[in-house]
Structures are given as structure tokens and as C-alpha cells.
Amino acid sequence: MLNQFFHEPIALGLAQAAAVTLLSLGVMFLARYQNIRLEREILVALARGFLQVVAVGSVLVFVLQGPWALGLLVLLIMLVAAAFTAKRRVTTIPQALTVALLGIGVGAGTVILSMTWLGVIDPALTSLIPVGSMIIANAMNTCTLALERFRAEVESHTGLIEAGLALGADPRAIVRPYVQAAVQASMIPRIDSLRSLGIVWIPGLMAGMILSGTDPVYAAIYQFVIIAMIFATSGITALVSVLAVRGRIFTPAEQLILRP
Amino acid sequence: MTAAHADPLGQAQPDGSGRPASSDHAVKIRTQHLSRVVKGVAIVDDVSVDVFHQEVMAVVGPSGAGKTSFLRLINRLDEPTRGTVYLDGVDYRTIPPRELRRRVGMVMQFPYLFPGTVADNIRFAPRQRGEEIRDEEIDRLLAQVDLPGYRERDVSQLSGGEAQRVSLARTLANSPEVLLLDEPTSALDDKAKASVEALIVRIIREQKLTCLIVTHDNAQALRMANRAMVMEKGRLVAVGPVQEVLGAESVLP
Ligand SMILES: Nc1ncnc2c1ncn2[C@@H]1O[C@H](COP(=O)(O)OP(=O)(O)OP(=O)(O)O)[C@@H](O)[C@H]1O
Ligand SMILES: [Mg+2]
What we know:
Chain A has helices at residues 2-5, 9-33, 39-63, 68-89, 96-118, 125-155, 158-166, 171-174, 176-195, 204-211, 216-246.
């Protein structure tokens, strides 16, 4: 319907954005009817999301024409931003920024660099940047999930941990069960997304490729490749993040720092 | 016991500090200006006290006085913000923490047992040093705490008193020199209390341990300890022979 009136892509995009905004506002009024008062948050989130994504799109117009190294620079900036975001979510964890940088950096870095080198990720910026940012975003989520779970496990077992310390145990051995729990918990969403791929959901990238005219079978295989890369990234990120934080919740004299 | 250690009370100086005049070698634990300030509050405030070899020192005082915090500092579970502790005359900051905690065992007020069997809990600490403790040894430790035949019991099925005794046996598996006990009988009824108390006294004697025991119960302190130290608001307000200190206490309004 809209495409009958708008032929210019940006005008069409704006019209489509206006339509979904109306839809969201409708949801907001429905919520209000149920006394769920989220107007402010919803309006701010809508406006902010729109401006951010348009800003990124505009920057991409220039970046995508740039040299290969520019892509790496963009990804590096995203990586640092991801680490800061993760850090803000796990404030009580000591040296959270270092831990997040390590986890996200090693996890996303290894996968992006090795897969680009192999040719699994096309080094063309039109592919490297969106795929890379997807990997980084997932590394960030895994990192937060893993650290959050580890924090919760440790905080709910301080008595047991200190009993172990008081017996002269190695702090790393005492928290081993919590390391396992945290890594497992943060991997479960990735395992689920691999398992349900194509059945429960057709992921965004595949949908996008099909929309832009790629052969659906290739789009499907490539979507599997992406999810598998995200899976690998999550595994490395979770392990590195939790192992990095493990040593930091104790002082050099092996006293537990992290407390509720 | 050698003659020098037979009666630590007899060596006490007339100032009531309970410190010996010259036999420094008999001091097992010396805290020196031991303090811990958390968020501007001194929870342990300049506590200097000597505990003699093979002595039982009761740590008494009102709730919140800093007794638990004091024991945690001696085990170095918390770091002193000022002062230090000497173990056999050696500044404990020079001793690797794990070795220190093996030698100065702490039994917490609440027995946090590791999930698994009683034996798993007793094997835990020696295994940390790569030592495997034999089943006969586990049985011997369990007999010591009056839990014969409990080796393969699951810890989730123990009563409070049994758990407390497993917690004690688990610490004893480390062959400690000093035992820090934080209200070991506070969760027990009178009958269990009397039996745990008796077995603690027996173990301390048999293994020639030096012991600091936190208690709310003056009668228990009188039964178990040679000397007592009274804490209030983090400070040491009295120390001396248990009859004198707690006798004087009970006269106060
Ligand atoms: N980690 C901590 N941070 C801040 N304050 C603390 C901390 N640990 C203990 N305290 C405070 O220090 C004081 C002494 O606590 P502590 O547990 O040592 O007392 P206690 O003499 O063992 O008391 P009780 O007889 O009730 O066991 C209390 O006021 C307590 O709230
Ligand atoms: Mg206490």
C-alpha cells in the first residue's frame, strides 16, 4: 500500500517508520488502559532507537566506501562500546571493564579475524561490518549473562566459599562449580538458537538476504554459518570472561571481595 | 604439658593483661593493634592480646561487639586495616594464606558443608594440598566428634548438631595448631550443647591445640576456658583469668 504512494527509498522508509511508530503508540495506549504507565520510557526508546539507527546508517554510507582497515577500526570502536555497556550492567563486579574487554575482545576478535582470514566472512565492508557487529553484540550479551550469573552464584554462596577458604583451599577450586554454572547458563540461549534455527524463527539476516534477492538456500546456509560463529564467539567469551573475573573476586591474600 | 605451660594463668602480670613476664616463646597467637575499619566504622579496634600455647581463650561480649570479626582477622579472611597477628612470633602476613589457614583452623558459627557426603567434606582440605586422606583416618576423625559410621552419609540429611561436628572434623583433618571456634554450640539444644562442649575440650587437650572460642554463655566460658577476653564496640575491654573476668562482669549492673 505504502509503496504505491512512495517511490523514493528514503521517503518510503520514513513512511514505514511512521506506520510502525503509530502501531507502537497504539500498544502504549493499550498498556495505559491497563494502568501500565510506560509512556515516557516508550517514547524516549522509540525516538532514541530511530535516531541511533539512522545515524549509524548515515555513517555506514561513508564507511562502506572506505578501505578495509576502516572496517576493523569501526569494529574496534563497537567492541569498546560493547565492553562499556556490559560493564554498566554488572557494576558490582571488580574491574568489570577489563574483564568485559578481555571476554568480548578475545571472543569476538578470534572469531572475526579467523573467519575473515578463512573467507567465511567476506572482507568487503558491506559484509564485515554488519556480520562483525552481530558477533560483537552477541559477545556482549554472553559476557553480561555469564558475569551476572557468576556474581549471583558467588553472592549466594559466600558462606560456603569462605568455609573453603578457611580450610586453606585454592580459591579457584572453590569457585569451580560457579564457573561451570555461569558458562553453561550463558551458552544456553545460543544452543537454543542453533536448535530452533529455521523452525521457530527465521533470523533477521536470512530474511534480509532473501528480501534482497539472494538464493534462499544459500541464505539459509549462510544463516547457519552466522549462528554457528555466534555460538563459537559466545563459548570463548563466556569462558574468558568468567576465568578473568574468577581471579579478581579475591584479594592477593585470598580473601573474598565480592559480597552481596 | 611442660612446666612452663602448665599454668599460663600463673604467669600473668599483675596489670591484669595476662601477659607473661618473659616467656615469649609460649605465645602462640599475638594480635598487635589489630583493627579493621569498614566504611568509617571500627568493627575491631586496636585489639592487642596474647594467647598462650595450648591455652583456651574465651572471647565474650555483647552482640555486635566484633567477636566474629576478630576471629576472621586471625584467620585472615578479612584484612586488618591496621595492626597484625603473630603466629609463633612470625608476622602472619609473611605466611602464605593457605598455609596460615591450615595451621589456624576456623569453624564458623553456621556449618556450611559442601554438597555431598560427610567423607567428601573431610577429604576436601587435605585434597587441596594433593593429600588423599584414608578411610580409616576419616573414621578416626568421625569417632573423635562422636559420629561413628557417618562416613557415607549425605550432608543434607544431618541434624544441626551433627553438621556442626562434621564441620569441626573437617577442620581437624587439616591437623591445625590453633582452633578458632565461633559460637560452636549456639544452634544446639542443652543436651547436644553439653556433648559438643565436652568433645571440643577433649580434642583440644588430646591434640594440644591453642583455642579461641567465641561464646555468649558465661557458664560455658567458665567450663571450657583458661582465660577470657571481653570485647565491646570492637575494643578489648578486659582480659584475664576466666573466673576473674567473668566474675567481675556479673557484678556489673
Ligand atoms: N563486612 C562488614 N561490613 C560492615 N560491617 C560489618 C561487616 N561485618 C561485620 N560488620 C559489623 O561489625 C560489627 C561486629 O560484627 P560481628 O559479627 O563481629 O559481631 P559479633 O560480636 O560476632 O556479634 P554476635 O555476637 O551477634 O555474633 C557489627 O556491628 C556488624 O554489623
Ligand atoms: Mg558473631
